[in-house]
Design brief:
Chains A, B, C, D, E, F: GO terms for molecular function: 2-dehydro-3-deoxygluconokinase activity. The structure is a homohexamer of 332-residue chains. Chain A is 35% helix and 24% strand. In chain A, the strands form three sheets. In chain A, strands 1, 4, 9, 10, 11, 12, 13, 14 and 15 form a nine-stranded mixed sheet that branches. A four-stranded mixed sheet of chain A has the order 3-2-7-8. The two termini of chain A are 28 Å apart. Chain A has 332 residues and is α/β, with parallel strands linked by helices. In chain A, helix 8 runs antiparallel to helix 9. Chains in contact: A-B, A-D, A-E, A-F, B-C, B-D, B-E, C-D, C-E, C-F, D-F, E-F. The interface between A and E is medium-sized, with 26 and 26 residues.
Chain lengths: 332, 332, 332, 332, 332, 332
């Protein structure tokens, strides 16, 4: 069984019942999530040995976060405990015209305040097949940033493949240019995941006009990322938000070695929960690549998996390989 | 900050969980609502100083109604307490083919049995900018009817602008002609809100064929109302009930002074809760007018606000000015 | 299988979740109940053929009431449909120091407004073994009162045994003396159920000092009722409300023919739901009497059944004969 | 009032809240259902005297099943009690791309292990107007199979009309050919309900190519069934599963006596709960036929009723005749 | 109507359902609370004009906090909006042996980071009758501390009576001596509320041995506080935690002018929610004092009110004057 | 960290909300539990490396069971997948007079039908410190019985300590004498857990009169078990069921080597959930023994832990070592 390590911040998500507005009822549903944790949970459901690395506070909230990861089948041997709190985000899913609303309360988390040298990446990555991190992690603090860069460095040294999902969150970069650290993180990776807007904002790589996500623009962006930063593959996602309840979803994958750009099937999805769509795409692409599926098939697998995610409550994509393949076959 | 006074009956609404039929589970969700209360709650969320006037029983049910109003930010200084009960209505939202089902149990409420002279309208309307009432109020009893007419009279005297939403409910007028009292209520108002059917049934003003709601028919109805009853503006709503889950929603606004008829953008809405759509339209039109927005812009604001309402559980439109403007800008 | 007919008003009860105050959350749990309906439901669970007679509105609320009765196994062939509404009562159970709070909204129900001759008691009581009614029924309206008296008359004529539970509710008798009609109802019955306070207030039969419920006082009251009104047996209940969460519960049964007064075992109960305790006592006494148990044993059965009721949410005593006998054996 | 008897297995259905995956929350909603029970419940709501015959375990689960049937208005006089357990099925409704998922745990139920001669069909069917059974029943065990065949035989003898819904469930027939027993069950029935695939698999009657459900293919299948097995009418359903949330739904009815094939209106339904659609069709067709509606109208009634079912949570179609007729009129 | 101003931090409280451990289910019940907010809410229910002053973040969480206050009838005109977050605390109520568990996540709240001069106390306290603050407020930050001291100074200047509830929370004072600022806050107040332990820890006033709460020790502590700090009255609470589900509750009130020490009735309470007990005592003591009740009666009122609080879910004491007086009369 | 292996059947438990009767609402709360699984979960919370061995069906129900174990921190590497179903039990907790009610539906589970040689006990127990099994396991089927005996044999061979909890369930042994296999299982174990009744029924070891659980009787039973079967220690539990809501709880531990009998402190517990009390005692005794605590202290730890369990919903004892020690210290 392949082993994938992912590293990032886990948060508690609190959402109102049904399609209510936040705090309309005195009830909140708890979920746990975070970009890399979502990847780790997806991978566990896909049958991969999935190790997740983070830092959780040593209290009942941190215990609950740990239990939630374990319930999904994620391995948590390398989870640190400490710090003052777990970050929280409040999510109102919206409905049709009423857009998704997210209120973040994530500052000063145990993860953001971790020490740069708290993790022994040689030990953690020993024997791993893949390492995954997002562009959110270096934005969260000095410790996470240095640790993520160190992890990528060690992974390269040990021959562990690396993927980076840009995950552009402007609010986390206020007053700072994300490019220097993100370019460092992405340089030489095996797979970079993002969209043209994130490529421009986080890597300083501009290709085509903003808002235009034609295949030509995607190709230009992918080629530029590969050329400038040496990424072996670039995966790009396209989400068309028709409304809070309906999204168009498709992706493309550029392989530097062949210069091929594969464009996926398009899914028009009645959305149950949009959070974690991109993360489930990254996870399924890692799975399918490790499974040896050719690029075009890996892309279809990842796209179907992430379209399916949009129909599942919570951040985690609780689907098996068989369920994803059934989508592909049904629509093939 | 502008101050708007509204007057009418507040009821308790009881609905089953999710998309269940009434009493399929032994659970009911409580809401509070009523045409003018919905207007008052919307206005409070839009940042207006919103005073609501009603009569609630002096028991735990009345206390809960009062708390619900206050939670929305509505001012309740002029709420009377007394009478035997609060009216109740049971609402099953339906789904797709299965239509909305409402069971009313509103007779003999504290509001319906209030005395005609229970309210000192000179005091209540002193310093107000706007007074709003619906055509439901005079149908509920002698006291409410006389009090509503007195309120309109005082408002005119004090220079307070007046709006009336026809809100035609045939069951409340069984065996009676609504025209005499409703015409009196509407006469000379600043804004009348309704639809061609209500205009015909409640004002005895007929224009065009029933069921036809073309712009020409709307204009004819509006012109007739203005000409006969001296209303300065007439707002007309068009709801196309595709199914319990999907409505078309658009509106028009006729301004007597200019003879202009503005037709709004059309919204095709996946409906979460259809109750209170017209009320939220009236509220947002009052807000936008008081805010000094020109007729066409005020209409777009009110239409977007009320389309948004259809996506929110309960009777109240819990949306801010920024949220409504974002809809307009996104779709503009 | 024995057949028992009971007649009275069914209402919808609405209660908040857990130990909350009314309307603290926007959730209500629906129950259905009413003194004679509670008797009917208890009897059905005890395996008796239990016919309940009432009048329910022909709407979704009435349908739900009917479904609730049927689910308990109550026969509803003789339930009339009509009238404007179902009565409602809001129940907050309280906890410890915080007392039970009930808000009634029962006026103008379909039952209260039924016609005096709406029911054909000869047909309904044909072949029945027992008829049960409470002192609430004649308080609710002219129709119910006349119909109840007629039912008792027909029952006597047909040799159907009759029980009456006084169930004194002062609020229903404001400005009226309950004695004339209640004495008429009780006269000659096979079993009267009540407590010394109700005997005084509703029958005008005074024995002993108020507040004193010693065996001597109970005997005096029972003897007086038997002597004055010809009741063959008088059952008296004693509830000591230590707090909303703890009640003492015991009963006594006087048999006119023998002059014996049996006093039951005393139960100290941690109360889950106090509503329907007396009704479940009456039902179990009817069952045990029909089952041929001697007076002392019938009394112990009825007392255990009603103590058990206090531990069950809702108005209905959902317990089997085996469960009641197990209580007696365990404590015997 | 007409009396219809149906016979089959009742199970407990457990479903997660909202659109969650199974066991995502530690909460399950209980429903009860089963092909013939769904027919019986629908008929009760349509105002028919509906008798349901099954065997339920003599424990709290069986008691709950019985209470659920009674709450719907189904008559349960002929329900046997015994056996070890009630079958259970876990249903995840899915959403859009995510398909319905059902996990069965139905083996060794009290019904499956009933004796072949446990029921006195002469007594049960005496005075009945119609008998209904599905093709699931004979698959469940020797006892149910023999009893179902005996019931059909007795029905024919007593002049009770018979309908059979094929309800093909491949998992129940593993390693067995359903044709011998199913052909016996269907032979000479008044109405057979199914679809071309079920006709081929369960009756060995092939007409047209698989997957093709054109009117021509439907007619061919219906004619073959009538010719070979002597069915007087053949009703065929067509469900196009666009996604878990959207189905196309239409039906056709072939009348052997006239050779006419009526095709129903097509409904495109936003699905709330797909379970029980076919059962509600059968029930409404029985009702409309007994009500004397001509074939084309009976078919429209049954199709509208079953389209409406798809919008109702649970297996049972809780709709009245008026509600179904309103759908037809609204769309007519 | 009397007007009371209170000032402090409001937090969101999150609790698991029923008697579960934290995060045992993925559900949390939201409450809002905080020492002075609890006082303000209690006062509003007691019919006092209750103004609460705090600082809430300008986001959906702050909006919900504001709505919760308003729903209780608290006036929020002087609530500031700003800062990064609302403090949160997770409360597991425990049961019997299993003790209450609280996890705080309150650092960096909008209240803690408010500016020292953000509030215009002359304006806010103009016309007020009473000002209340707890010893928690100065522990939370420089701004709250300075503002609280300023409020007390202004109150004295304007003749507004002042109460201070010590509310000792060791975790908030780690590494700091609470005495200097708390003594300043308490000096010259009209009523100080606390217990002997808090008096020792926060005021540096020691009287008697630790753990001993006899009347003599209470008197000694009260006399010392009055003598050293000039408090006109000292109220002391005694809570005996038998288990998480059962508390003993009694209080004493020392009046400096007379030297009298009144000891209250003792309540043994089955606890539903222990949070806010002391706050409800302070609120009811303020109410009863403003109502002109003599010391001994005011103390009994406050003790009954706070015993009642222990039976109510949430932090707020939702009880009326009549309900409290009923407890006194019932037990009197 | 010590490693403990436990082996037995895991079931799904379904319970109604609050204090309701089974199926009173259409809602069930899911838990997972089973005697040895409860031990395994307790040990994981106590910080032990806890390996649980069972067989779960390869479907969504088995997946949920696995996720539930993992969430508690139990290691599931040696869990087999297969068989037809997971056993289910329905639990109504009761209240006061109303006793606990359990309905089992556990036949034909994947565990009961496992093969005798399905598990490689040499591999599983390699490096373990302790093996635990209950007397339920051999009752469930040939495979579990043979596998349990083999596990004990291998454990002895590898020097792994062994504990057996008798857990007498008469319904599982109908028509069979449990003694032969249970004696074999218990022979030579390090700790046997039981009560005098189970010792008599399952081991055929009688000491003292039935129903008498004095220290003398306990000692006699323990000595007999040690003498006859060579158990090194015998732990005996005493539960006095005052009512469904209140239990007395105490234990005793006999050490064969010293002949000492330690009797624990007595706890009088307000019960939240009685299921799993004995299992949590066994788990905590294993923990404390492995932790090197002397017999008397280990017994107090285990008794406090299991008393605490009675206050926690579900079968699992979610408490830490610190929480248990706090109970001991508080009561010490």
């Amino acid at each position: 069984m392949k082993r994938v390590v992912s590293f990032g911040e886990l948060m508690m998500r609190l959402s109102p019942p049904g399609s209510e507005r936040l705090f309309q009822s005195p009830q909140l549903r708890t979920f746990f999530g975070g970009s890399e944790a979502n990847v780790a949970a997806s991978l566990a459901h896909l049958g991969v040995r999935s190790d997740y690395v983070t830092r959780l506070p040593a209290n009942a909230v941190g215990d609950a976060a740990l239990a939630a990861l374990r319930a999904e089948g994620v391995r948590t041997n390398n989870v640190l405990r400490g710090g003052d709190r777990l970050g929280i985000y409040f999510v109102e899913s919206g409905a049709d015209l009423r857009a998704l609303r997210v209120v973040y309360d994530r500052a000063n988390s145990g993860f953001a305040t971790m020490a740069a040298d708290a993790l022994d990446w040689e030990m953690i990555l020993h024997g791993a097949d893949w390492f995954h991190v997002s562009g959110i992690t270096p934005a969260l603090g000095e410790g996470p940033s240095a640790s993520a860069l160190r992890a990528v460095e060690v992974a390269r040294h040990l021959g562990v493949r690396v993927s980076v999902d840009l995950n552009y969150r402007p609010a986390l970069w206020t007053g700072r240019d994300p490019a220097p650290v993100t370019r460092e993180l992405v340089r030489g990776c095996d797979v970079m995941v993002g969209n043209p807007g994130a490529v421009a904002a986080m890597l300083g790589v501009r290709a085509g006009e903003p808002g235009n996500e034609s295949d030509g623009v995607l190709r230009a962006a992918a080629e530029a990322v590969s050329a400038e930063l040496g990424c072996k593959a670039v995966a790009l996602t396209r989400r068309e938000v028709v409304s809070a309840s309906e999204h168009g979803w498709s992706t493309a994958l550029y392989t530097a070695a062949t210069g091929e750009l594969h464009a996926s099937r398009h899914y028009q999805v009645q959305v149950v929960d949009r959070v974690g769509g991109g993360d489930s795409f990254a996870a399924a692409l890692i799975y399918a690549t490790l499974d040896g599926r050719p690029a075009a098939q890996a892309l279809e697998f990842a796209t179907a998996a992430s379209a399916l995610k949009l129909t599942i409550p919570g951040d985690f994509n609780r689907v098996t390989v068989d369920e994803v393949d059934a989508i592909i076959n049904r629509n093939g």
